[in-house]
Structures are given as structure tokens and as C-alpha cells.
Amino acid sequence: MNQTKAILFLLLLFYSVTTTAQTFVHPGGLHTQADLDRMKTQVAAGAHPWIDSWNALTVHPKAQNTYTPAAQANMGVSRQRASADAVAAYLNALRWYISGDTSYAACSRKILNAWAYAVNQVPSGQDIPGLMGIAVYEFAVAAEILRLYPNWSSADFNRFKNMMTTYLYPNCHDFLTRHNNTCITHYWANWDLCNITAILSMGVLCDDAAKFNEAITYLKSGAGNGNITKTIPFIHPGGLGQWQETGRDQEHALLGVGMLASICQIAWNQGLDLYGYDDNRLLKGAEYTAKYNLWKDVPYTTYNNCDNVQNYWASEQYAFWGRGRLQRPIWEMIYNHYVVRKGLSAPNVKAMAAVNRPEGFVHDDNLGFGTLCYTLTAAASPYPSSPAPAAPGGLGATASVGKVWLRWLPVATANGYNVLRSTTSSGPYTTIATYRGTYPLYEDTSVTNGTTYYYAVSAINQAGTSNHSAQASATPTAAGALPAGWVHQDIGTVATAGNTGYANVNKGTFIVKGSGAGIGGAADGLSYAYRSITGDVTITARLAAATWNGGGSQKTGIMIRGSLAADAIACSMTTGDGGVREARFGSRSAAGGAMNFQTGNAYTRAPTWFRLKKAGNTVTAYQSTDGQTWFTVGTPVTVPMSGTCYVGLVVASNNANLNTTTFDNISVTGNSNKQKNKVSMLTPK
To answer: H or E element: which one contains 262?
Structure first.
């Protein structure tokens, strides 16, 4: 009997430690008292790398004691401004504790009180309920530090907590419960995660076990994508967990990694090990995301949701949304827990922390300065993290019209690159770009067609700059007349005349400009560069670049038409529409009939590849991110186009403005209507 009681007691103890937290540690949001004291001690000693991150914090505009908040009765009027004020409150509270200067505590108090006494309603506005959770979480962790300040009165503190529970909690809870009445996987993981983080941190701040446990329960078994098994839906060999938003874009994938890590950190500070939950699932997701953004190959499984987003591949686009931009200061928290504290292997997380060190601050939705806040030992987090990098290898230059594309092999310890250019072989070179990031590619648009340019690249990190790479050269070319057999024509309702130019570079480059009513409905209005073909045909093209000035249904891509009439039987493979990134396979099976669309990858941005294949009366559409691995879009369609058809490149802006698309790597195989023999103008990449 006694043995049974002992077992039951141990089980109860285990359950309380691993599942719920009923007694709270304060401070215990992102930082405990021990964490804050470590920061204070190391900064006072001028110790690296803490001092390097601290120096970045002290010059940040939101870490100044002169910061002025803009509180609103409805926090949802501008969730972005609410988040900015919350970040300022957090940074000022942190700066006060570390420096001892109470003017920063007073500033943090001013911000928190302004909102506590202004808010009088549940937030409403754009993306709310939903993304409001970011600001709510940030306000909660700021207050969790400031609760140590003796001059934040209990009346003010209670007013702040009342704002949290009376007005902000219902918003976060409603989102996780109802998801704005959408299908359950409609919202991406970061939407759920920010609300879980908000409710979790609110539970700590307000000593509310029910809220704390609500957040934990949702992370483990919730219906939406904040359930950790849906946030990281695929586990690949080698301890790599594919992040749910990897096929969407890297910006949001990294946001989600940071949010989930914050959840785990807050829970850890309350004695709950979510870091280790489900066999260290966060670590697997972080390793995968870090590896991909260090520009290393990762396995990928097509991701789909209830909206049929069809993410066929891991998103690479390196502009704002892209792979390899070091824009999220999230890695020190993860590295220091798994590698330094727990002694686990995480080579990609470690490498990502190293190239980011010292972490600063970029976005209001990740609080940053992780080198200051989470570094446990100097020995495990050296700064600089490595010697100056090696020179980049494999530099290649590809000419286009009005631009040159550069690509080289990534350098393992680089966190940025210099791009150098000359009009003389071997220099002297002028630096035309310096950027922070791991992506080994660059688009040079400041060129003159007909001029040969010579390029070199050097790698950068915290320790210095590498030698120059070997040289590569390219000659951009002006667009001129179309090649034999190709014609340009505007079709249907077009407000501004389009045009097409051609240059014999990069396996055939077409610059297509057009306006037009659009592609779809009973008739099209578009700009078309085409050739006529009899019988079977396959067209392949890379959509290399696009400028978007049109309406909500603007599209660009490739097409096969039964005639040049606006209401012709036609098939298209395009991107555009909402967010100018939705790939669709369109088909009009009868003249004047409606065009039906099947969904491709809903996150298709240039550069991307399209293919249409007509065999008899059957047309099949494909898309690819690299021209090598192809994905069938929807199901093949049957259309009566057995005779001559018109195959080509299409732009439709859906208004009077001109859109411009650069197509290259064009391949058209079939029977030319004029030559009556098989032609293959260009070879696909």
C-alpha cells in the first residue's frame, strides 16, 4: 500500500512538473532573476560577447529613455505601433536593470501605464484577432521585468494586469478557439504561435495557471497549426524537422522559429521543459531552418493546407521574404539552451548563432539582443566567432537585358558579401554592393547594355574580409527584334499597347510588356508574344523577373491558344493574382466559355519555371523552381485544339498600367505552322 502511494505521489509530481505550472517564478518571462543578474555582471565587467550586444542595445532608438508611446483605447488601431511601444518598454526595462539607471525604468513605466489606462476595449482591426498576439506577448514580458522596479505602484501594476486579462486575453483566446471562422489550417503557424506566447506570458505575469496551461495544452494538442506537430509537420533523417512555413517564405518561417523558442524559454523559466518536448522537436525544426538559411540543401516534402497552397518546394527568393537574410535575432536563445546548457549537437543552429553574433534587433516581432540575454559562457560563444572567411569560389555571371545575375558558392563562416565590378579585366574594381546575409547571389541592374563587366566577390564576417574571388564576366544586351517565327500582338481589351523585345542571351530572353483586362472569364485582354504551331507542342520558360503595376487579377506566364480571338479556347500557366504570387493553370474549353483555374504553388515568385504540354487535345501544366524537378499542376484538361495553335508568353496587368516580365531559357518544341517540321528553338536549362 505504501509503495502504491509512493508511486502515485511520484506520478503526480512528474505530471505537475512536465505538464502544468501552478506556482510561478518571478521574474519569469523570458528572463529569470539569475538571467538578469548574469547580464548585469557581465556588462559591468565589459565581458565579450555580452558587452558587444549591450552596446548595440544602448544605441537602439527604442531603448532610449526619451521614447514616447502612442497609446490607443483600441490597441488594434495599429498593432504595429502597439508592438513598437511594447518593445520600447521591454528594452528600457532591460536597460534599467542592467545599468541601474532608473530613468529607463521610469520610461518603461510611462509606456506601460499609458496603455494600461488608455485601453478600454477588446482590440479590433486588420488581422485582429490574429497578429495582436505579438504585441500582447511583448507587453507581458516587458512588465515581467519591470515588476522588479519598486516605483511601479501596485495600483498601476494591477491596472496593467487588468488590461491584459479583461481586454487582451479575450482577443488571443478567441483567435485560437475560432480562427475567424476559417478552415482550421488556413492560418500559418506563426499566427497561432504568437497567441500561444501571449497567453502563456500573460499567465505568468498574472499568476494565472488556467491561462498558462491553456497555452501549453494548445501547443501539445491544439487543432490549428500552433500544435507543435503541425508547426513542424515532417521529420526528416538527420534530426531535421521541416518547418510548416518553409515553402511559404523564410521570413515567416524564421518568425515562427523565434516564437516557438520564446514559448519554450518562458516555460523553461517556470520549470517546464518544452524545449525537450516530443524528442526535442523545436531543435529539429530549428536545425532544418538554420541549415536551409545557411544555404545548404535540405530534404523537402510538399506542404498543403485547407486552402490548397501546394507548396511544392522550399522557398528561396532572396528579396525581403528570402532565404539567407540574417534578419531574425533568434538563434542565441536556441543555441545556448540546446548546445551549451544541454550538451546536444546542433551544428546548424550553432553556425547560425555564430554568424549572427552579436545579435542585435531588426523586427519588432522578435525582441532581439540574444547575445546579451541568453549567452551562458564566453567560451561557448566566442566573438568574433571565427577567423576572416575564405574567398568565395565558383563565381558565375549571366547576362540578361539591362542586368547581370551573379552566383557563387556560399562561404561557411560568412555573414555578408562585397560585390565588386570593373569594365577592365582584372580591375581595378569598384565595390557596387555590400550586404549582410548568407545568400550567394546578386542582381546587378546598374549596367549599360553592350558593355562587358568583370566581377569579383569577397566574403565578410565579424573578423574581417576575404580575398577576392576569381573573376567572372558578362555583357548585358539590349532587346531588339523578335527572332524568326515569333510575333507580338495585343489581344482583347487593352488600354495601353504592349510590346516585346528579344535578346540572344541566357538561352533566349524576351521582355514582354503589357496591360489588358486580364486572363480569365469569357474573354481575355493581354499582351502576347507567340509562334504558331501545328499539332503537339511543349513550351517551357523561366519567368526570370517581373514588375507589377496592375490590378488584383494581374497575371504573367505562358499560354497556348486555339486562335488570336479574345474569347478563344486557351490554356495558361501563370503567376500573379493575390500577393502577385499565386500560380494557376487556366483552361477555357470552348470559345466564349468561362476559364477554369486549378491551383499551383500559391507562393510562386520570380524566378520560377513554367511548362505547358499539349498532346492531341490534352494539355498538362507543370511548374518548377529550378527547371530540373517538375510538379504537375492540378489534372490535365481536354480542349479541342487539334489544328494550329498559338504558343507563347503572356502579360496581363488587369488595368491600364504596363507590367513587364523577363522570360528566358525558352523552349518550344512542336511542328511549326510555316515550316511543317519539328523545331526546337532553344534548349531548356
So the answer is: helix 250-269
Q: Is residue 310's pLDDT more than 80?
A: yes
Cα gap 6→12, rounded to integer Å? 10
Count the neighbouring beta carbons within 10 Å of the beta carbon of residue 185. Answer: 18
- Of 375, 297, 362, 378, give the one whose Cα is nearest residue 334: 375
How far CA 48 is from CA of 126, 140, 382, in Å, comes to 43, 29, 8
Rounded Cα distance between 566 and 652, Å, is: 13
Other residues' Cβ atoms within 10 Å of the Cβ of residue 243: 28
Query: Residue 682 pLDDT more than 60?
Result: no
| 466-485 pLDDT, tens digit each | 999 999 999 999 999 999 99
d(CA 339, CA 275): 12
| CA separation for the pair 303, 310 (Å, rounded) | 6
Q: Residue type for 479, please? A: A
pLDDT tens digit sequence for 174-210:
999 999 999 999 999 999 999 999 999 999 999 999 9
Secondary structure tally for the chain: helices H, strands E: 16, 24
3-state helix/strand/coil string of 597-627: EEECCCCCCCCEEEEEEEECCEEEEEEECCC
Could you write out the DSSP letters of every residue in 203-252? HHHTT-HHHHHHHHHHHHH-SSTTSHHHHS-EEETTTEEE-TTTTT-HHH
Residues 6+ apart with CB under 8 A from 366: 255, 258, 328, 329, 330
19 band by pLDDT with thresholds 50, 70 and 90: very low
| 29's grid cell | 518571462
pLDDT at residue 672 in the model: 61
Which helix H or strand E contains 390, and what residues bound it? none
Rounded CA separation 274/265 (Å): 8
Q: Residue 322: its pLDDT value, please? A: 86
My answer on whether omega of the bond before 607 falls inside 30° of 0, hence cis, is yes
Q: Which residues pair with 632 in a beta bridge?
A: 622
Q: CA 183, CA 5: separation in Å to the nearest integer? A: 46
Grid coordinates belonging to 291:
541549415
Q: Count of CB atoms within 10 A of residue 475's CB?
A: 14
CB of 319 closer than 8 Å to CB of 325 = no
Nearest to 412 by CA among 383, 441, 392, 397: 392
Name which of 576, 561, 574 is nearest 487 in CA terms: 561
Query: Integer distance in angstroms from the first to the last C-alpha of the chain?
Result: 75
Residue 8 has pLDDT above 70, yes or no: no
Higher per-residue confidence, 489 vs 684: 489
Half-sphere exposure of 269 (CA within 13 A, CB side): 27
- Percent of the chain predicted with pLDDT > 90: 92
Q: Look at residues 539, 479, 534 and name the one whose alpha carbon lies nearest to residue 506.
A: 479
Q: What is the C-alpha separation between 510 and 482, in angstroms, rounded?
A: 8
The C-alpha cell that represents 213 in the structure block: 496551461
Contact 585, 520 (CB under 8 A): no
Burial of 1 (0-12, 13-18, 19+ CB in 10 A): exposed
Contact between residue 13 and residue 5 where contact means Cβ atoms under 8 Å apart: no
Residue 277 has pLDDT above 60, yes or no: yes
Residue 577 Cα to chain centre, angstroms: 19
3-state secondary structure of 118: helix
